[in-house]
Design goal:
By secondary structure, the chain is an alpha/beta fold. It has one domain. The chain is about 40% helix and about 10% strand. Strand 5 and strand 6 form a beta hairpin. The longest helix has 18 residues. The chain is globular, with a radius of gyration of 19 Å. The two termini are about 35 Å apart. InterPro entries: Acyl_Trfase/lysoPLipase, NTE, PNPLA_dom.
């Protein structure tokens, strides 16, 4: 953090004070929200969007972009259900029904995205897709095309089925969470993190003048390595050479992304603000199942956004007390 005012936070807060609404702005700016995923690390993104909702800042944005768990967080935010969406991580999927590495030996997904989408997001904590579709703020979920590993934006949802198929596609980690998902044009799609882990590029191409990025890992954390020769061979054989190459290059891609996000502006000139978790709970594993660790992660995300909005030391994450109670 520097002593300079954050132009992205200033715009969002000014819009809240003015009661500005999407499609009826008087400031001539376009503010985009970009949300990183990361499996169970998405609980941090959940805490972040819950803070935005608590602060009354949802309508300050003109577009939301998310990948994998970040897309899920964006969906629940625009449906007005940010906190229930966050609770999914430590109430509904921190169990063997969703995560089980031994299932791989039986040819079944280690992370059951179908259970998440078809059961949890449909029946347990149902996403209000009607409200999401009707929202004046469009949501774009990023997926990756199997044939060439190109990023594929999924947006303009017309019905419940399209929303849920997009959530399934953006979260479908190759080999670990089930087969590819057919996209709107029939092309097979997998997890958007392989091509657009933090989709700031599309946000700027679509006219954003200001971009708020929510990261689910501290910037000081090392980028993921590019190893995994066996995994790459499996991806080449079962999906495509392009997907195998994208997997191998993920560390290099994230390192380049980290450099990009370290600037005050994106290459096209859009003002950039990046929020990262810090303190207790800032490090959450991709396949974390411990309830307390997940609650702490959500709280870390909440604190980070509250500090970004000038509310450091303000209202605590609503479920933080649940973690303290479990330790007694």
């Amino acid at each position: 953090m520097t002593g300079r005012p954050d132009p992205v936070a200033a715009l969002a807060l000014a819009r809240r004070r003015a009661g500005s609404r999407p499609g009826a702005r008087a400031d001539g700016q376009r503010l985009a929200l970009v949300i990183e995923g990361g499996g169970m690390r998405g609980v941090i993104a959940g805490g972040m969007v819950s803070a935005l909702e608590h602060l009354g800042l949802t309508t300050a944005f003109d577009a939301v972009y998310g990948t994998s768990a970040g897309a899920c967080a964006g969906a629940y935010l625009l449906a007005g259900q940010a906190l229930p969406g966050t609770r999914i991580f430590y109430e509904d999927i921190n169990n063997r029904r969703f995560i089980s590495l031994p299932r791989l030996a039986r040819g079944r997904p280690a992370m059951d995205v179908d259970f998440l989408v078809d059961h949890v997001m449909t029946a347990v904590k149902p996403l209000d897709t009607a409200r999401l579709i009707a929202a004046a703020i469009p949501l774009t979920m990023m997926a990756t095309r199997v044939a060439d590993a190109a990023p594929v934006p999924l947006t303009g949802f017309r019905d419940h089925g399209e929303v849920m198929r997009a959530l399934r596609a953006t979260s479908r980690v190759p080999l670990l969470s089930g087969p590819p998902v057919p996209g709107p044009d029939g092309a097979l799609l997998v997890d958007g993190a392989l091509s657009a882990p933090v989709p700031v590029g599309i946000a700027e191409r679509e006219g954003a003048s200001h971009v708020l990025v929510l990261l689910t890992r501290p910037t000081a954390r090392p980028a993921p390595g590019g190893g995994g020769a066996l995994m790459r061979r499996l991806l080449v054989r079962r999906l495509s050479p392009a997907i195998g190459a994208a997997f191998a290059a993920r560390g290099e891609r994230y390192a380049a992304l980290a450099r990009l996000l370290g600037a005050a502006r994106l290459p096209g000139g859009a003002a950039l603000s990046v929020v990262t978790p810090g303190g207790p709970g800032a490090f959450v594993g991709r396949m974390e199942k411990r309830r307390l660790a997940l609650i702490d992660g959500a709280a870390a995300g909440w604190r980070a956004v509250m500090a970004w909005a000038g509310q450091a030391g303000g209202v605590a994450f609503p479920d933080a007390a649940m973690g303290k109670e479990a330790l007694r």
